[in-house]
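Record type: ASSEMBLY
Status: queued
Input:
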Amino acid sequence: MARVGVFICHCGKNIGATVDVEKVVEAARSWPEVRFAAEDKYLCSEIGQNMIVDAIKNEKLDSIVVGACTPRMHEETYRQCLRNAGLNPYMLEIANLREQVSWVHNDVAAATAKAIDLVKTAVAKAAKNEPLTAKEVPLTKKTLVIGGGIAGIQAAIDIGNAGYDVVLVEREPSIGGKMAQFDKTFPTLDCSACILAPRMVEVSRSERVKIYSYSEVESVKGFVGNFEVVIRKKARFINEDKCTGCGVCMEKCPVKVPSEFEMGLGERRAVYKPFPQAIPNIAIIDKENCRYLTQGKCQVCAKQCEAGAVDYEQEDELITETFGAIIVATGFKTFDHTKYTEYGGGRYRDIITGLDFERMLNAAGPTRGHVVRPSDSQEPKRIAFIQCVGSRDDAKGVPYCSRFCCMYTAKHAMLAKDHVPGAQIYVFYIDIRAAGKNYEEFVQMAREKYGVKYIRGRVSRVYEEDGQLVLRAVDTIIGEPMELAVDMVVLSVGATPQDGAVELAHKLGISADAYGFYTEAHPKLRPVELMTDGIFVAGACQAPKDIPDTVATASAAAAKVCGLFAKDTLLSQPMVSFIDPEKCIACLACKAVCPYEAITVETVRGKVIAVVNEGVCKGCGNCTAACRNGAAQLRGFTDDQLIAEVDTLCQ
Amino acid sequence: MTEFAYYPGCSLRSSAVEYDLSVKAVFGALGYKLHELDGWICCGASPAHQVDAKLSSNLAAFNIMLAAKDGLDIVVPCAACFNRLKTGLEKLTKDDIWRRQVEKDMGFEFKPVKVLSPLEVIAKDENIEKLQSAIKKTPALSVVPYYGCLLVRPPKVMQFDDPEDPVLMNQVLEAAGIAVLPWEYKTECCGGSLSFGNLDSTMRLTRRILNAAKKAGAQGIAVACPLCHQNMDARQPQVNKQFRESFNIPIYYFTELIGAAMGIDPKDFGADKHIIDALKALKV
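Status: finished
Output:
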């Protein structure tokens, strides 16, 4: 018979005030399997833990029951106690007397009776528990970083510097992300490209980092330490090894289309580089618009290319690699302002977004750094900025704050004054969020030094009249409605998850919230980890954030990966399925219901049976339910053990 | 469905009789039967809901129940009545306790019916087609479509077209061959019944709309609400006097325009009753 030890925790008043702990211990002592029962005010404390270890040794206990808080808090703590006492750590059963009893009931008598029931059930299971051993799983010390913006770049650099290999996959033809599009960055007004480019060069030169640009993750299988990933390298129709980035093809291409990089305010050719500092510094042919690829005519680029790099026959390539860890750094996109029909819904050319304005301010941008109205290229003397377009707006389904817009608008307002001397600048806001280091001073500089007029009130409508834009708004500080005619309106658009964010989440098996931002493992204490082991998150794809926070989370995720790689093997989770080869008749019902494809068919000693890959099995139990013979059992949750619990509870 | 219950409301019996007659004419031409609700009462319009919410709900519920008894959807031309009845319908549908009280008072069960604007009925695809084939001679005037507030706001209750940029009136008028000009004042408030309590603001607001129509080059304004019509038509001379303007813009219920295009003599639906001459511009 098992020698069970029962330990009940008061958890201060948390459990002790609602459950009569003494009574529970007394009841426990009366059960035949229980050799020792005790209580403690704080079982998780050093004193409490020592008591458990001593009791195990002195009373020669071989199976332990703890009645305390949820196992999600201290299961690992008590497993360690068992290890310290020389016992298998899986000979542990926890009855949740806090979250499931004292925190949800008021009646002491009823709560105590329930606690006794739960502990008795746990004892019945503990009596049937068996020692389990975690297996060592090999670990591939290579990281996949998905996303080549500043977050992905920083993470790749850090992991490379630590001595591990990295593969960086970027969807666009060049790395750089949003920062490549910005003009200046707050609060220092550093030129964005000037601080980004060195990082881009560093990551591209790193011997540890392989960059797959214009590529996407096709599929992901496996688990922490051993992710099998298929990457689709999309066809550029340019031979990467031959292209020198000289740019002659772009000069000669006859097709002009709106440039995505320039937010449609400028053009590019069908063969193009997204921006001059692109890395890799290689051209790409846009197959939707190339005359040869769509109509079979032209081929000017191929004729002009001295390196002979044009390859119209190029096809997508599928590359399979194994990684021990993955960092998701896919970034964000700006809110689609055309949803705001009250601001014209995209009909007015002189109403633009913050990101459009960045390109306009940029000296290398579509207007050569001149702030002009898109409609008539005239300099706007009066510019209005509207904050919270696509943020803090229940009516548009985006109740959250996008965090960086107040700052980038203050920046835009000041730069607009620099670019258009004497301009009148208005900012319509709800609140100003400037919580970072030197951020508040930055906004005050816009108000005091630059004379930007900040008006607290929302704009209910913008429409065009006589070549100007009329804003209907309210000044809540003086309590008056107002109307304002300006030459240009810039909408401070907020952040939304990237296109394809949710699809990627499905591929990786990670969670995303209702908006599509990836869900961190714990909002306070685990901001760069995800619920899935071995996959980490960095940057704005988790939640809107500015550049300092993005870089911080990128380095944090890199540190987590290095921590993971510090060992040579990983311990697998032992509570997985096991199929008894004696009982298995290979009906394969288990294989059909396994969501992780963890079951294979093998011939062992001449008998065809189903076998579980313990490394892939997640212990969900589907196979154990489907198995008609009871051949498939979940270690730590066998039918015998669970029936013992049910029997006890039904007494 | 080829028949509807018909709720004219108070204005369609008096100041907006042209709306009543033209709606009936157009619906008749489209093959619909309109059964005026027997024993309908005032919907309460603006005064009721500002003074007593319960009274306002009661008035709406009474009229809806009349239609529910026959199981017919209700067509409500007046935008204010439409807004009140639709609000009342939402309450009847969602507030179980209230509905049970109403059913007890009325003596029968509420069976869901729809509250519809003639605009959305005419704008249905099959009716657009019928309209296009029923056109005899389109008046050669250009108009701007004025929707006003009550058809589209509050958006969560009315769920009518796009609250910022509605298009149903554009579609039905264009189907009738009328030239519809773009403008920014589709849903700008005219002042509504504030003309009774705060004439000053109403005059200002109405003037802005007339001015915008003039700037757009419109020869007329199409409306779907008796009070908008009253403010812009009946009070147009007043606006001219107060602001030293010289507007001379006829205001038409959109059904009047469609009726004229169908070849109905405008006098038959009361277009000669407008304050600003509406007959001249309708001459084809």
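Annotation: Chain A touches chain B through seven residues (CB under 8 Å).
Annotation: The first strand of chain A starts at residue 4 and ends at 9.
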